[in-house]
Every structure is written in structure tokens, then in C-alpha cells.
Records
---
Amino acid sequence: MFDSFMDANALTTFGGLVTAVMLIVQFSKEFIKLKFGDSYVRVFSLLVALVLTFVFAPGEWNIPGIALKVINGIMVSIASGGAYEIITDPKAQKVFKDQIK
């Protein structure tokens, strides 16, 4: 994906932000699970994505620009979680609550 180390320019792109969030969350996920529980990993992912998006994503610092940064942060968080699932278990089948006996 990259032909050099990640830098600030890479973090100004959607792919760079997704990669950074995925790496940060995956390396610190165990600490979050031990301290708060499994369900807080997604909240942590969203927080990391929002922080990185506000710091590195270009945009205006007015109300519409901030709203777009929040929306982009949510998209980055969702994409990083989905990318991790696709890489680690591409043939996983989801089981829904009503299917459990």
C-alpha cells in the first residue's frame, strides 16, 4: 500500500487515516478490553478517528467544516473496523441474536 513510511501527508488522505486508526486500535485494544470491556473498543476507535481527523484532515474551522470532520471521523472509524475484519477473517459469518438457540 505504501512505498515509504507513513508521514503527515499520508494522514491527510482517507486511506492513511483508516490505516493509522486500524493500527492504533489493534495495538491498544487489549488494554481497552481489560479496563472497560469489549464493547468500548468501538468507542475508542471513534475517539481515535475523530482526534486524527481533526488534527490531520484538511478543512475549514467553521460549523460546516467541523460537522464534515465529525462525519469523516465516523466514516474512518467504521472503515478501519471493517478493514480489520476483512483482513483477519474474510469468510466470517455473522450470527444474529435471534439465530442463537
Note: The chain has one domain: 11-91.
---
Amino acid sequence: MKRKYAGIILAIFIVAFIVTVPMIGCKRVTVTPAATVETTAPETTMAPEITVAPVTAATSSETTETVQPAVTAEKITKIGAEMTGAIPSFMCINKTNMVTVEVKNTSDFTWRTEMPNLVRFGYHFYGQDVSFTEYDNTIRTVLPHDVKPGEIATVNVDIKDVLNKGTYVIQIDMVQEANDDAANNFWFSSKGVTMIEGTSYFDTCQ
């Protein structure tokens, strides 16, 4: 009976030993939670936004010139003009005087305001009691527009080259000039056209 209990006790002791020894021999390991490593994603640098302007057709700063066809001088076979007007009896030496003339184109070509066939008004003056005279180099007055054969125009002819007091004969005449061909440069009176003529006294005006 004693042996039976002794065997049981021994068995319990052996079991306890088997269980206890591994626990004594094992070193307790403390598991430290791993440090949390914060991974920061590299900051992405955004490229600056580029605004692309809409492509438009470039506008040239140069103005396209319209080339006008060259005007050819008309052939002249007949030169004529009918002028109506009157020379004032008094005019100023210190101001521009204007004499109104109505003229009809009885030529067979157009009187133009530009070359070729440039036609303008001029005048001649001759001093009667003073020695001042001028035939060619007097001021010119342009036509208001091109005047075709048969048309009538009204022109205010400027007279302002008389600079000295006295009595003068004034002759209003027409002239075609500034052409390369000298034959096309002439006073109309030299072709038989009647001028507007009169005597005028010139003095200072207030």
C-alpha cells in the first residue's frame, strides 16, 4: 500500500518537474512594440501653371497700299474756257483778296486737280502808276474738283501778290503746267482764251 502511494507521489513530482523546468529555463522576452516610423512621402512640387494664350493670326502693322492705276495724259486738240467774273475796283495789299469766277470747260480734255493735265487759276498784274509787274510767278488757285468737257465750276481765285500801293491792271488767267512735255504747259490766254481783266487800286486794309 505504501509503495502504491509512493509511486503516485513520484509520478506527480516528475510531471511537476517536467512542467516547471522549461519555464525556469526560458528567459522571459518582452516584446517592445516596434517604433512607428512615419514615412513622409516626398513633397511633390507642382509646376507653375502656364497659361497658353490662344493663337491668333498676327496682324501686320503695315497698311496694304492700294495701287491706283497710272493716269495717262489726255491728248489735247482743243483748248477753250469761258470765264465770267469781275475785278473789284479796290483790293488790299495786306490781305488775301478773292475774286469769284464761273468757268465752263470748252476744251476737249478734263481739267484735273493733279498731274497730268493739271489746270489751275493764276493771274498777271501790271502797275499803272507804280513800277511793279508780274506775269508768271503769281499764286495759283486749284479747281474744286476735276472739270470734264462741258462742265461748269465756280472758283474763288486768290489774289495776294500785290504788295505795294497803287493802281494795277489785273488779268485772271488759267494755266496748265507741271507736265514733262513743255508743249502741255501753257497759259490759256496764249491759246486764245479771253481773260477776266480790270483795273484795281490796292491799299492797306483795316
Note: The CA atoms of residues 30 and 166 lie 139 Å apart.
